[in-house]
Design a protein that fits this description.
412 residues, alpha/beta, TIM Barrel, 17 helices, 57% helix, 11% strand, globular, binds flavin-adenine dinucleotide
């Protein structure tokens, strides 16, 4: 284990929460305390989507608590206030139009237009270098699922499996898929023109192959002079380290650069439970240690090839965040190397984001926005992710309490 770079510490609560007022701190404390009651979260994540759908008057409560903590606003104008405030502290922004679960060609077209509007907005700001997109916002889930299953039936190189699978779709489905490709390509082309990177989220394993294949093809086209397209590698999957290395080799052969966002992965329970129910081996690592091992091995691989890879370290794990910084130092790279960027979700791990920014690293908050009723699935995932007092919530709570105590001492 390399020695930590002395400039970077994640326990400086004064730096971590400098952007938060006393009342913001109190609200966050209350919310993280509530989220630490797993029974309350289990119940809440079941009831909330139902209550919102049936128009129970809970939106004001959601807006002043969980929405305010994790979301940048209902529209781009509202996010501007947040992104400007972050800029004061040297923190950048990844904008995410967070609407999920809306299907139908009209909704897909509307989402594409919104992503383009987001890119145009980002180009008018100085601290929004990336936006993020979900292919399920632009394509029918069942179509992705079918294409994925067809891809799995083929043998040979990854991209030729994808090409053969497309030929096996029914003619109307092939046309539908071509419309998806056109939508994604239109977004990426605007990103390339405006100089804004497009991060493509990783989703459930049973729809992921066509997303990966499409993303790789777009990298081949758009990542030549600069890196516009990024794929996401979920290192809780036991096959992803090899996949990352294969993608790197393909990029070298193809003469383009690899954009790689490394995450651990957000759908572990869902993945395991589907595998159990359907009787296939789980795609998820056997334990957390294995996920951590592959995550850090992925970081090491990318940092060793920073001339060819643009790495996005997307994590709330302090050890991994520091490990990436230490790898740079070991390889005599500057801490602000133009091919590495750290990011944490808005509302989480401010101690990492703001301390990295202070040390001179390129770092952002991943900032979702959208009408409150449309970002409910995102909010429910955040609540579930933050239930374990042993894990992230415990850390958030102890840092918030420390900062509150520090401010109380100062006020005496
Ligand atoms: C900027 C950004 C973008 C993101 N984009 C995506 C995305 O596109 N797709 C996506 O899926 N997620 C995405 N995420 C969410 C991310 O996957 C979760 O925040 C992440 O899983 C939490 O892990 P961590 O690295 O923060 O650290 P930690 O808190 O150290 O790790 C928790 C994670 O470890 C894994 N884990 C926990 N227990 C076990 C176990 N028993 N066995 C195996 N693995 C285990 C799980 O992935 C769990 O979420 C993104 C996060 C950020 C910050």
């Amino acid at each position: 284990m390399p020695t930590p770079t002395p400039e970077i510490r994640f326990d400086e609560t004064e730096i971590a929460f400098a952007h938060r007022s006393d009342s913001d701190l109190r609200n966050s404390l209350l919310l993280f305390r509530m989220m630490s009651w797993s029974l309350l979260v289990q119940l809440g994540t079941r009831i909330t989507p139902w209550a919102v759908k049936n128009r129970f008057p809970i939106l004001p409560l959601l807006r002043s608590t969980i929405f305010r903590q994790f979301v940048g606003g209902e529209n781009l104008t509202e996010t501007r206030q947040v992104s400007d405030a972050l800029q004061t502290f040297g923190v950048q922004v990844i904008l995410d139009y967070g609407v999920e679960g809306k299907e139908g060609e009209d909704n897909f077209e509307a989402a594409k237009n919104e992503f383009i509007r987001v890119l145009e907005h980002a180009a008018t700001c100085t601290n929004i270098p990336f936006i993020s997109i979900k292919i399920t916002g632009l394509a029918r889930f069942a179509l992705l699922e079918k294409l994925h299953a067809l891809q799995q039936l083929q043998s040979g190189a990854f991209l030729s499996c994808y090409q053969n699978a497309q030929q096996r779709l029914a003619p109307d489905e092939r046309e539908e898929w071509n419309r998806v490709i056109a939508r994604v390509e239109e977004i990426v082309a605007v990103g390339a023109r405006k100089g804004i990177g497009v991060l493509i989220d990783a989703e459930e394993t049973w729809i992921q192959d066509p997303i990966d294949a499409l993303t790789l093809q777009l990298m081949d086209r758009y990542n030549r002079e600069r890196v516009t397209v990024f794929n996401t590698y979920q290192m809780y999957r036991h096959d992803r380290l090899n996949f990352l290395i294969d993608n790197f080799k393909a990029s070298v052969q193809g003469g383009y650069r690899l954009g790689a966002k490394l995450v651990r992965g957000a759908y572990m329970e869902k993945e395991r439970s589907r595998a159990r129910k359907m009787g296939y081996p789980s795609p998820i690592q056997a334990d957390k240690r294995a996920t951590d091992r592959d995550y850090d091995a992925g970081l090491a691989f990318c940092v060793e090839h920073l001339d060819q890879i643009f790495l996005l370290v997307a994590t709330h794990n302090e050890q991994s965040s520091l490990y990436a910084a230490n790898l740079l130092v070991e390889l005599n790279h500057p801490i602000h190397h133009p091919h590495i960027h750290w990011s944490q979700l808005y509302g989480m791990s401010d101690n990492i984001t703001f301390n990295l920014a202070k040390a001179g690293c390129s770092v952002s908050k991943y900032l979702p926005f959208g009408p409150i009723t449309d970002v409910i699935p995102y909010l429910m995932r955040r609540a579930q992710e933050n239930t374990s007092v042993k894990g992230q919530t415990g850390r958030e709570l102890s840092l918030l309490l420390e900062e509150k105590a520090r401010r109380t001492r100062l006020a005496r």
